[in-house]
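Here we describe the complex-level prediction in full. Unlike the single-chain runs in Section 2.1, the three entities below were treated as one system.
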Amino acid sequence: MLMLTCPNCGVTGEESEFAPGGEAHLKRHGPGSSDEEFHAYLFAKENPRGVHFERWRHANGCGKWFHAARCTATLEVFGTYSAQTTEPPKDIKDKISAKRPGWSWREVE
Amino acid sequence: MSTRLAQGGRLLTRGRPVNFTFNGKRLTGHAGDTLASALLANDQLMVGRSFKYHRPRGIVASGAEEPNALVGMGEGDRFEPNQRTTTTELHEGLTCISQNHWPSLEFDVGAINAQLARFLPAGFYYKTFMEPRPFWKHIYEPFIRQSAGLGKPPKGADPDSYEHFYAFADVLVIGGGVAGLQAALAAGRAGARVLVMEQTPHWGGRAPVDGGTIEGKPAEQFVTDALEELTGMDNVTLRSRLMGAGVYDHGYVLGYEQVAEPRAGQAGPRHRLWRIRATRVITATGALERPLSFAGNDVPGVMLASAVRDYAVNYAVSVGDRTVVVTNNDDAYRTAITLKELGLEVPAILDARKGGGGPLAERARDLGIRVETGKGVAKVKGTRRVEAVAICNQAGEGAVLEEIKCDAVAMSGGWSPVVHLFSHCGGKLNWDADQALFRPDRDKGPTGADGDVFVLAAGAANGHLDLAGGLADAHRAGRDAAREAGFTAADATAPQAEAPEEMPLEPVWLMPQGAGVKLRMKAWLDYQNDVKVSDIQLAAREGYESVEHAKRYTTLGMATDQGKLSNINGLAILSDALGQPIPQTGTTTFRPPYTPISMAAIAGQARGETFQPVRRTPMHDWHAENGAYWEPVGQWRRPYCYLRDGEGVQDALNREITQTRESLGLLDASTLGKIVVKGPDAGRFMDMLYTNMMSTLKPGRCRYGLMCSENGFLMDDGVVARLDEDTFLCHTTTGGAENVHGHMEEWLQTEWWDWQVYTANVTEQYAQIGVAGPNSRKVLEKLTDDDVSAEALGFMGWKPITVAGIPARVFRISFAGELSFELAVPAGHGRTLWDKLMEAGAEHGVMPYGTEAMHVMRAEKGFIMIGDETDGTVIPQDLGLHWAISKKKDDYIGKRAQARSHMTDPDRWQLVGLETLDGSVLPDGAYATAPGTNANGQRNVQGRVTSTYHSPTLGRGIAMGLVKHGPDRMGEVLEFPKVDGTIVEAKIVEPVFYDKEGEKLNA
Amino acid sequence: MKRYSAFAVAREAFRYHMGWERAWASPEPKKKYDAIIIGAGGHGLATAYYLGKNHGITNVAILEKGWLGGGNTGRNTTIIRSNYLQDPSAAMYEKSRSLYETLSQDLNYNIMFSPRGVMMLAQTQHEVRGYTRTAHANALQGVDTEFISPERVKELCPIMNIEGPRYPVLGALWQPRAGTARHDAVAWGLARACSAMGMDVIQKCEVTGIRQEGGKVSGVTTNRGDIACDKLGIVVAGHSGQLAEMAGFRLPIESVALQALVSEPIKPCMDVVVMANTVHGYMSQSDKGEMVIGGGADGFNNYTQRGSFHHIEETVRALCETFPVINRLKMLRQWGGIVDMTGDRSPILSKTPLGNCFINCGWGTGGFKATPGSGWGFAELMAKGQSPLCDEFSLDRFKEGRFIDESVAAGVAH
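The structure predicted for the assembly as a whole is:
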């Protein structure tokens, strides 16, 4: 039972308030993209055992989407942040690097 | 003879007799008794039969760890199997029955299994019952199922109520013994919001029974004082009868409260499920005594030493007149001393340790008790109750030195901390070789959302079995927890406690240590599931070496007690068999709940009508009063049709359709999703959402649109109306409204967040009524002064009007294929408008029609239905909807996906109409066969029916379907086998069966 | 391998069961094998078993990082059925179901396949239509199913409340020859049979790397040394992503937690398996008497083998409505496992970008029932490079948009 804080409305709530929405920071590939690119975008999702960036919607709350940085092996939440970003903010990246030595943000593919 | 002592019983209220029955026998106990203590007080030593061998089973323990003493409790709808007598408070009128025997507890046919035990070792069923094959299903399995299973099933619906409760704490203390209370004091004094949970009705845990002094006063006094101080703190809540059931991620803890055993007519819940969020959790859950593994350790009358002591002190029950104590530690001496001081006989204390015990042993000797060191039990004599013990050297193979007559045996193999709650969420344990126990690893406790450990064990649960050490540890845990939760604890030291010094225990996993196989086959580890030392050794011998394999192969620890008594003993035996140290063997995983919790408590209040909320349209009650035959659609209920007296469903459908086609019908369309999309970029956004071009739609006009997922599949459809330059109103399917709205928001917020668009789901803000049929305009004109003529409001137009005095939007759209108006009014006016329309339409014989009539009429028109023609694998191109897919747009959601090779495959099945040659209705879901079979031997198919109905309008069956190359095969006849194998032939036709030119809806 | 039988048990009884041999050997890894299977769960062991039995390939090692059968094989709710809608699924699961029928005899190990019948309740008109369609499809696929009336549902399962009030039962898709089996026994019986064929089942052997030469796999690196192989099969539900990463490709899967629970044991009161998808719950009664209950999967990536309690709550609530007698039963134990979810919720049995490396994963919530069928097909794929049972389950299908979507027939849970 996760607890998450919605960065849009500031509410910290039960997991059942939120709806998970899969991998964050996807780059959309539309018409004109190659089969490989489109497949990677839609299906070859990140599935790490460890640090993961994902989308959530405060579905039973303010209704807004946001991003969470979370460890899939321990369920630790490093932070939540705006969905209107293409990569995690620096403070979250720094926090993760401090907690998971050796970790680094890869370039968005 | 187990009986009630004349005096004593610290938890009893003498003079308040409580009547109850066991197997129909009328018995009496005292207020304050548990069911177990009351049974013992009535000499009911044997209370059930074991799972596999149907051996006589007596009460072994005095608390939650009890494996044997389970009964069926209550009567009728309130009957409940597998109730643990040791944790059941006795109440007036309680009725219970013993379990797992036939015909009676005393004479059980299943007991034959005990005679055959030798032929039924662990896992015997994996090696047998295979031949002949049909015997498994028809003979072996029914027999096994019947002989297993413990209690009888409950009978009916449960008449009692249950509820959920939410709580929050900075520091949650689980366990109300002295350690828990001390931890609560330390945290509470620091100002933290503390919740203390105690599973029993009593505070103080074992300390008042075990003795010792705290700050110079008896432990019981400490408990009283602590409770007084805690009760006085506003920031502390104390709750008894509330068990910590499970610890979950991010500080989520489940509590299980026994509120009351309600009887008929009494209000209030029976159980309460607490859902708690805590910043820090302290598990002060104590420790459980371990049995010793000797032959006959399962005979009724053999009990944990601490349980014998509990029954004597707390309930004034002597389990036997002559109790032999057998131990590997000093603690069990307390039992001997207690019994002796109560005037009962203790013929001997058998201490497996060569060196014997410390001051407690001295005390026992001083009381005149015979103490034998280096000795153990070779065998217990007796079947339904203990008659004697044969004693032997612990070091030997079990040669009998002497037989001692006795009627009870109090055994102690040492103590194991209750680490369950610490472990549920991933806490790691360390093996403490000195004390021979697993204890929590402070640094490897479960971690919370912030990555920090949030569960701290305290006291005996943390491996501090002595009173002083336990209190000091709990004090530290309470302060640590408060500090970690952000509170500052004032300087204070732990209370000083004194108890007799104890000599270390010596691990004894088998008694005697060289016991031969015949003794090992009688030395029980798991009493309920009948797992013996020999079974674990067999598992190891056969290669089931992992602790999980051994558990699953033998069923050790899988009974209702989940191995609280058996697991450590079992894994010690396994480790020995494998020749490896215990920590290398490891434990099985601890899973919630700590003890079983009722399903009804988990379900909570949401039962019956409120199981899931029903969404109601403003006209819901009218439908209910007028014969609605409901159909669940999403969380809504919609009328499938309206049944009149004596009418069948098909009659009603025919009537509703005919009347609508010929004159006038009303549809409650309020459940249709209504989403407003607004903003300067709304048009651009709409063009991405829909396959059609929506940005070119003119205000005042409507357009049917298709919405696909990014994966290309058709997900929803509906009519879009442009309200003004900036605003679109999107109608969605009933079931799709929330998904579609979520879908829009996802794209807006995570992809095109710089677009200026807002969306709002206004589904419930409007009541919507479809007025359909050739007379629809006439009835509408009766209620409005606005011009709704064909010229003023053409097909696919909309306009604001006032109807029956209510501001409304009227949409000239049609799903039925008739002249049709959809009226949307603020929800609060919905019922009024409905009534007015019924009134005004009376002269035209107005009738409401339900969802099925709507489906039939749309199928007659060849309109697709999401969920019928689509199923998540269908793309718009399959449905002949190319006209609704804009060729001009570079992009829309799903466009790229639809360019993949399988999506552009010309062999994809395409939408067609289907007409049976004999006019019958094609079976729903039928497939059209093709010649031959595929590589897996399955019949080849070339199409399927997606919608099929009897059309009262055409007087024949009509259907739509998807067929390979369908549109190119008009007139061809396909074969559709029914499930019974007979064939229905149907001709491929155009999918529009009614008013092909659209004259009616354009009227 | 000494045969198991009632006679053998009796014989051993007279020597106090001291003469039983190991069910499977505990060998040291050899330097090289013809084929290595990573993962000694049901599917991995079944693959090895059929490599030997059907294709004569017995120089095989099955490597297991923990204990065999310790993943989802030993955590599922043991339902076996084949009433799937889509042809490839029905073929796979029906093959599997039919193999289960004789698996006890084939393995000489009683896996307790209990063909007691499985019903999937229809509680909305949409489900009625979905299951009617499945019944039609099944008839052409050679799968014996039937859409039955609410009255028949009640007759087969008297403890069920078919009247609602929230979702009255409108009928059910009934597969009489479906049922359950003892999950651990499937793994153990297969391990014993593999061992008897001379294969090496190696537990506590964790693969830490996949060695490659010239675009092909040459062997694996493990905590017990390097082991070479000609062919490699990866069959590691819940860890497929990690192994694929070692092999240098990414799989279209996400790993989530799926939970189950059991009640305390009671005397037999339910002789069929019931799945109720509208309310998200399914239940059967084990031979031990426990009510075995499965719930929904979490929607977020999770490797903890612990799910969220609200799923348990929803499932139990639904089943209390459907089976009122369980209100007064108690939940004995709840647990979780990690399941691999693919884009269409159907499995992957496929070649990989590495020519001699094959992957079997993505079974989501429904893998146990497929165990022997999956092994049969995947062994054929590994041995011959092609298998009709596996063809449609290839990795390419996501790229092509060729999905095998079972949710079509209202099949939320497998």
